[in-house]
Amino acid sequence: MIAVGDVFAFTAARKWVPCQVIGTIKNYWQVIVFDALSTKRPSAKIVDGAPIYVLRHTRPKNEPLYLACPGDPPPSFKRLGRRPVALAFALPKTFRTSPRADEDHLPNWANWTYAPAQVKDDLAQQPPPFRSKLFPGWKAVDPRALRAIDAAVTRFASIKPATEAGLRKTVVATNRHEREIDTISREELFEKLVAVAKRNGLDPDDAAAVIEAHRDW
Prior knowledge:
- This protein is an alpha+beta fold.
- The chain has helices at residues 114-123, 143-157, 164-175, 183-199, 204-214; strands at residues 6-12, 15-25, 28-33, 66-69, 78-82, 94-96, 103-105, 108-109.
- α4 (183-199) crosses α5 (204-214).
- The mean pLDDT is 95.
């Protein structure tokens, strides 16, 4: 049986990542993952005064790993001991994935395995940055997704005269990255595609209808 104060650690990218059960909420364990990574299995004291782990690269970006987890942790979580719950920070209640996004609420209701998967992805080697001339404001988008969307729109812009088939193919290509397209970016992408279609001879109302019929973002 686990209890409030229990400290565990899991491994991600060959590093030990500690977490602590800090309380309960609606029969779920409140769990904080700490940004106190080590190459060797740490002691429970590693959580004393440690900062919370915040996702910097994987989705959802900027999410503090404050979780509500059901049941006991899996065997991959190694118990380090028990420490008094004495966080060096106020519990976060919300976060934003980008300045343009809406607020998301915390804790994140997730299984115990969520944290190792997210930290592993977050610590993975990141792709080189990419700055799009078509979408200069998309600074929080994954570079791989931004490069692919930019390329798809550029290819569509090269089709003269523009065709509904070409636009449909472009929209389908951008759908693969719909998780990276936030509310404001959706409208920017929509307007960009309609503008390109109109410039290259496709009726803008027809273009809008094609986009609406086939987009997932």
